[in-house]
Design goal:
The protein has about 475 residues and is of the alpha+beta class. The protein is about 45% helix and about 25% strand. Among the domains are: about 10-135, PH-domain like (Roll); about 160-230, no CATH class; about 330-385. The chain has 13 helices and 19 strands. It is flat and about 75 Å long. Keywords: Membrane, Transmembrane, Transmembrane helix. This is YdbS-like PH domain-containing protein. It comes from Amycolatopsis eburnea.
């Protein structure tokens, strides 16, 4: 397909409905308040201008796919052309919101994993699928066709409420409600009305009930968000050496990762999911943008039973590595975690107590209550973080595990490690510890073995990736930096 082609003309219908929706939603309250009909022609002009602008974009835009490049051209007042070499294309993703689905079109986003990106918005769904296949399937289809690796089990939705998203959504809902009320000068009245819902219940109990209500709303929101993001989920290994994740209820998404760019997987266990026996699987791959902070673009499996996550990780990596027996870290690493956890928990307590002495006894009560809750929790998390530390190897993979609130087990291909950074603080040096960081061009870019024994860690790093530390083999283990 090397001839120039246009985007799908149905984009004009999508544009008309979007601008009409904006006009109605924004204009209706104004029309009711002003009792004026002049907004009707204004809305018509607004919709017409939006459709005209999209017509110009559609008419002036064309693209083509040659054996060497994908090119996008815009010719109107200005002439611009964007081109991506096909060998540099790393991701080809399809997205279709409910309006796109109603019109039978989709947005195709092609990227190199860096800043270069071309979005074809929109194409007919069949054309978008065909172009995606052409751009990524670079080997004969008969060489590999492994089929489905995982699909959604509706029972996984029970893990949505145990994520940190649930309380965040609930508190955000209350925050947004009070913000809107404050715009109309009714913030205080809203609070009094909410507290009045519980009758003559004491103030402290009313606040606790409001927090419970916020959590209930957050749980409902988290369940809805999970359904929207992961309904119809399916992970496939496709002919041509690609992994494809398809998901979405209202807005459908299709994310494709080349296996030759895959450098491993990460088994991620946030605290709530871990307590519920769940984990998710993320891809460690080159050419995936890291600056946007989004996790769902690299997620191969949402929160699911840990046994399922371990199985999917093994099938993607080609080896059962997620549960390999790891080297434990010295007891001195436990002491460091205890000290840091207690310092973190004690700092706000001390601040409240000092302010309580200077200002009001209420802060003394709050400081004492916080100490009773925060200090034991800090100790428990510190011991849990220590138990989670470990590193090891299995086959062609390096395995690194760390974390308590967010425990991650990174399974990283050893041939994907391009360097080691060895660091020792003054306190680590005194206890014979060091942190060894494997540097890679994939995933987060660096995966650290925290507070390992300095001598054992240096020997492990040298053996795990032979040759990289050879020039430094004679450096003493207590050196501050290698």
């Amino acid at each position: 397909m090397s001839e120039w082609r246009r985007l799908d003309r149905r984009t004009l219908g999508v544009s008309a409905l979007v601008t009409a929706g904006i006009a109605v939603s924004a204009g209706t309250p104004i029309a009711i308040g002003t009792r004026s009909l002049w907004l009707v022609p204004a809305a018509v002009l607004f919709v017409g201008a939006g459709v005209l602008a999209d017509f110009v974009r559609w008419r002036a835009t064309r693209f083509r796919c040659t054996p060497e490049r994908l090119e996008l051209e815009f010719r109107f007042v200005a002439h611009t052309r964007k081109s991506l070499p096909r060998e540099r294309i790393r991701t080809v993703d399809l997205t279709a919101n409910p309006l796109h689905r109603a019109f039978g079109v989709a947005v195709l986003t092609i990227g190199t994993g860096q800043q270069d990106e071309i979005a074809l918005a929109p194409l007919a769904r069949a054309d978008a699928e065909a172009l995606r296949t052409e751009l990524l399937h670079r080997v004969p289809a008969a060489e590999r066709a492994d089929g489905a690796l995982a699909s959604l089990d509706k029972r996984w939705i029970r893990y949505a409420p145990v994520s940190f998203v649930a309380p965040a959504l609930g508190l955000s809902a209350f925050g947004a409600l009070f913000k809107v009320a404050d715009w109309f000068g009714a913030g205080g009245g809203l609070l009094q009305w909410l507290l009045g819902l519980f009758g003559d219940v004491p103030l402290v109990a009313s606040v606790l009930l409001l927090l419970v209500l916020a959590i209930v709303l957050g749980v409902a929101g988290a369940v809805g968000l999970f359904a929207e993001m992961w309904w119809h989920y399916r992970l496939d290994r496709e002919p041509g050496g690609t992994l494809r994740v398809r998901r979405g209820l209202l807005t459908t998404r299709s994310i494709t990762i080349e296996e030759r760019r895959l450098r491993g997987v990460e088994l991620v266990e946030p605290l709530g999911a871990r307590l519920a026996g769940a984990a998710r699987v993320d891809a460690i791959a080159t050419g995936m943008k890291r600056e946007d902070g989004k996790t769902e673009a690299k997620t191969l499996l949402p929160a699911a039973p840990r046994a399922v996550a371990v199985d999917v990780a093994a099938r993607v990596a080609g080896e059962a590595v997620a549960d390999v027996e790891l080297v434990p870290h010295p007891p001195a690493a436990r002491g460091r975690r205890l000290r840091w956890a207690l310092l973190t928990a004690a700092t706000p307590v001390v601040v409240l107590l000092v302010l309580g002495v200077l200002l009001t006894d209420v802060l003394l009560v709050l400081g004492g209550a916080l100490a009773v809750v925060a200090l034991p929790v800090a100790v428990v998390l510190a011991f849990d973080a220590y138990r989670g530390l470990g590193h090891g190897t299995r086959g062609r993979y390096l395995v690194v595990r760390a974390g308590a609130v967010r425990r991650g087990t990174a399974v990283l291909a050893r041939d994907g490690v391009i360097g080691w950074t060895v660091k020792q603080s003054v306190f680590q040096r005194r206890r014979g510890l060091a942190t060894f960081t494997a540097t890679t061009a994939a995933g987060a870019g660096a995966y650290s073995i925290l507070d390992a024994d300095a001598v054992e860690g240096l020997e492990f790093a040298s053996a795990a990736v032979p040759g990289i530390l050879a020039p430094f083999a004679s450096v003493p283990a207590e050196a501050s930096r290698t």
